[in-house]
Amino acid sequence: MQQADRIKNLPPYLFAEIDKMINKAKQEGVDVISFGVGDPDQPTPEHIVESMIEAVRDPSTHSYPSYEGLLSYREAVADWYQKRFGVELDPEDEVVSLIGSKEGIAHFPFCYINPGDLALIPDPGYPVYKTAVLLAGGEVEMLPLKKENNYLVELDEISPANLKRAKLLYLNYPNNPTAALATREFFQRVVALAKEYDFIVAHDSAYSEVYLEEEKPLSFLEIAGAREVGIEFGSLSKSFNMTGWRCGWAVGNENLIESLGRIKTNIDSGIFEAVQKAGITALTSEKTAAEEMRQLYRQRRDRLVAGLQDLGWKVPPNQASFYIWAEVPPACENGEEFSRKVFQETGVFFTPGIGYGQQGDKFVRLALTVSQERTEEALERLSNSSIFN
Ligand SMILES: *Cc1c(COP(=O)(O)O)cnc(C)c1O
C-alpha cells in the first residue's frame, strides 16, 4: 500500500540510522559510550515516585482524564509560573495539560497552519517544529542560528516578505542543541516583530530549569505583550528527570490555548490522572531535587570540557541545557565524518549536528547524560586515538 504523501515527504530521520549503527556495534561486542542520548540518566526523585504510587491506588484516577487536565494540575502549573517567573496565569483559560510537551509542539501547527502557510523555524533546532509544520501542510523558512550571534535568531535577516507571510515562529531557549539562552532584549524584539507582522510565537521552554550558571532562563511570558502573541510549552521531562512519564503543559494566550485544547479533544484523551498528581507533587514540593541535578551536570560538564580541551579540541562549556554544541576540529570535514571516525576508533558516540539542521553541519552535540566514570573512560579512549594525536 502506498503511504500518504505527508509521510512519504517527511525528511529522512537521521537518528534511526544512528541507532542502527550503534546497535550493530553493540551486537559485535563494542563497549559503546554514547554522548548522544538527550534523556536524563538519573531516576525520577523518590518523593515524586511515592506520590505516583499513592495516586495509582486511588480508583478515582483510573477513568478517562479530563481533556484539558485536572484543574488542580493546571493550578499547580500556574502557581509554579508565579513563583518561578512572576507570571500570573489563569489556570482555567491560560493553561492546558500536554502528554509531554512534544505532543503539544507537534499538534500546534494543526491549529493555525493551512496548506501553503509559512512557519519560521530555527536551524539548528529540535526536529519536531519543522516536521509538524510539514505534516500540517505548511511551508517552512529556516532561520540560521549562528555562533557569532550567540545562537539567537537574527531577526533583522528575515526578509519582509517572509515576515508578512509567516503565521508562526518557533523559538527554543535554553536551546537544544546549541545550549544558548535568550536575553530579555531579544524576546522584547520578538514580541514587537510578532505584533508588527501579526504572527504567533511558540516558545519551547523544555530546559527552563536546566541552567548551570547564575543566570536563570526567562519565560517568554515575562515580556510585556508576550501574552498577546505567544504560547509557551513546558515539561517535567528534563527538569525533574521524568521523560518517561509524559507530562507537560502549554501556557499563554487564551485563544491559542483554546485552539490547542480543541485539537486535542479530537485526538487524545489527556494524561493519566495519577501522572498529573505526581506532576503536582513535582511542581509544588519544596524538595525539587533540581539543584542536585544542576550540580551533577555542572560537574560532568567541567570534567568533559577540561578533558576535551586538554586534547586540543576547543569545546565551549554550556551555560544551560545538558548539551555541549561543539564545532568539529579543523582537520575534519563535517560532523558526520568526525562522529563516524570517533565512533569507529573508540566506541564513543557524538551526535552529528546535521541531525538538527543544515547549520549543524560542522558541529556535534555531546549530551551530559554519561556518568563521571564513563566520561573518564571516554576521555581515556579519545586521548589514545589517532584523532587527537
Ligand atoms: C526533550 C525536548 C522536548 C520534549 O520533551 P517532552 O518529553 O515531550 O516534554 C521538547 N523540546 C526540546 C527542545 C527537547 O529537547
Structural features, described:
By secondary structure, the protein is an alpha/beta fold. It folds into 2 domains: 5-43 and 288-383, Aspartate Aminotransferase, domain 1 (Alpha-Beta Complex); 46-284, Aspartate Aminotransferase, domain 2 (3-Layer(aba) Sandwich), CATH 3.40.640. It is built from 14 helices and 12 strands. It has helices spanning 5-8, 14-27, 46-56, 71-85, 101-112, 128-135, 160-165, 184-197, 226-229, 254-265, 273-284, 290-310, 335-346, 372-384; strands spanning 33-34, 95-98, 118-123, 139-144, 166-172, 200-204, 230-235, 248-252, 323-327, 348-349, 351-352, 363-367. The strands form 3 sheets. The protein has a 7-stranded mixed β-sheet with strand order 2-8-7-6-5-3-4, with helices on both faces. Helix 9 (226-229) links the parallel strand 6 and strand 7 (230-235). The longest helix has 21 residues, at 290-310. The protein is globular. 47% of the residues are buried. The protein binds pyridoxal-5'-phosphate. The site of pyridoxal-5'-phosphate (PLP) has 14 residues, from helix 5. Pyridoxal-5'-phosphate binds at residues 38, 100-102, 126, 172, 176, 204, 206, 235, 237-238, 243, 248.
